[in-house]
Specification:
- By secondary structure, the chain is mainly beta.
- It is 14% helix and 48% strand.
- The strands form two sheets. The protein has a six-stranded antiparallel β-sheet, covered by helices on one side. It has a five-stranded antiparallel β-sheet with strand order 3-4-5-7-8, with helices on one face.
- Strand 10 and strand 11 form a beta hairpin.
- The longest helix has 16 residues.
């Protein structure tokens, strides 16, 4: 598959997630602190980008083998106002049976992808077809209800050429 396909697949996933009709509680104050600490009581997505903590404050979403996807695990969340500057992060791992460690980079045959949108005005797309190299450890993955737990780290290359080092990634989602 070509890079344009990967870009539009990732963009489509972000669009679907941002248009979700499901109302998720917004993590603020104490909840954000719990999420960044990795509390198993709240859905959360947190990571460090070049050593600076990034915590999703809305639309935290996970799915295991959702209909219409090739045995996928989806990890996603958003940060900031829901406008043109909203930052969205997602990891889509395709052709997976479940828990395990997944190492993938741009151009992988399964089309797995990691990306961050709107890091900065000049770095509006990081990862995806711009370049990514990720290690994701899926600890739990189940459906009905969807439960995903994972840790991750790696690098995302931005359209500007900037390379983001992702460390201490933590994800917990319980439907």
């Amino acid at each position: 598959m070509n890079n344009r396909f990967l870009f539009f697949t990732g963009l489509f996933t972000l669009l679907i997630l941002s248009c979700s009709s499901k109302n998720e509680p917004t993590a603020t104050g104490e909840t954000a602190v719990q999420a960044s600490a990795g509390s198993a009581k709240e859905n959360h997505l947190s990571l460090k980008i070049n050593g600076v903590e990034w915590v999703a404050d809305h639309d935290v979403f996970g799915a295991f083998h959702p209909k219409g996807y090739n045995k996928a695990i989806i990890i996603a969340g958003g940060k900031g106002a829901k406008d043109k500057d909203e930052q969205t992060f997602n990891i889509n791992i395709y052709n997976t049976e479940g828990p395990g460690t997944y190492n993938f980079k741009d151009g992988n045959t399964d089309l797995s992808v990691a990306q961050l949108a709107n890091w900065k005005p000049e770095s509006f797309l990081c990862g995806s077809m711009m370049g990514h190299n990720m290690k994701v450890k899926v600890i739990t993955a189940s459906t009905k209800p969807d439960v995903i737990e994972a840790t991750f780290e790696g690098e995302l290359t931005c359209n500007s050429g900037e390379v983001l080092k992702v460390t201490d990634g933590k994800f917990y989602y319980h439907e």
